[in-house]
Amino acid sequence: MARSAALIPASAAAVAVVTMVTLTLINGKILRMEKASAAEASAATESLATGEKVAQSQPLPAVIAAVKAARRGAKIPSGLTPPVSELLKDNYQFPSGCVPDSDPATTSNICRLGDSSSAKSIVLIGDSHAQMWMPTLLTMAQRDGWAVIPLVKSGCHPNGWTGSGYQGTPPDIIRACHAWYQWAVDQAKSLRPEVTLIAGCCPAPVPFRDATTATRAFTSLAKTMKRFSTSVVVVADDDGVAKQPVDCLLASRATMRTCTTTPPANILAFNNNLAKVARVNRFGFLKTRGWFCYQNQCPMVVARTIVYRDTGHITKTYALKLTGPFRGAFRHCILDACPR
Fold this sequence. Notes:
The protein is an alpha/beta fold. It has helices at residues 2-49, 61-71, 128-131, 134-144, 158-161, 171-191, 208-225, 245-250, 265-281, 316-321, 323-334, and strands at residues 113-114, 121-126, 147-152, 195-199, 231-235, 260-261, 284-286, 298-299, 301-302, 305-306.
């Protein structure tokens, strides 16, 4: 009994030592995981800032990291920007008078934004999906000395430019859109900008007839403006997400996986086909898919930044993050070096 009693303190000490070693190892592993997570987030954020160096046909490292996190079922990162509570308001607003102020309106003031005194200009023609690129354009314009002249009418999609409109669109809305488009093209011709950028909704209008009409509308405008601009570039629209971001991100069991969309083939086909049409007709096509998707998976959150404010429009915050990649792709396109 005395011998057994003598062994008890030693056993307790041994257990204490093993416990301390185990806890040290666990704590060390947690610390390494936390450091790795922080480094991954930092690297992802940095990859957005330096994305100008990434070939425009390639996905950004931050997007790749976000998709891999989704495949792991990772949690939605904390500290999102913009905050979900501010998400619906995170969009660019034009100065008063620079775009038509209501649906029936078909004209607006001609505004020179960015470096307004610059002799070189970019005319942006399109709808709200052109408007969402304004933060990117203006930041680039201030850096590189471009005046940006927006000819934009929200809700006037490419189908309406030709006077056909989406199936089910009221005739008066189609007429107003077509009238605005004719006015905008006349203005663009008279301005004779160095660069004409064209952007509009959506990657895959439904049904198929609308998709064909949209492609023809982009092509017709690009071919027209080639006679009045040194460079004409169509900016590929984002492929969008299936769920409303506010609803998805606030869901009780939200993860990167549940808030990542795999677009169906018909959505992906629209931009793929438009790229081919651009190649045949020799106008620029600025590819953007790699800024939103990797291997056809498109996350709502990239490097703690919420990408979308609804199912199709990107946030002002993410648009600003994309200034580097956009600037790099834009410079390649105006040098007639868009990926073919």
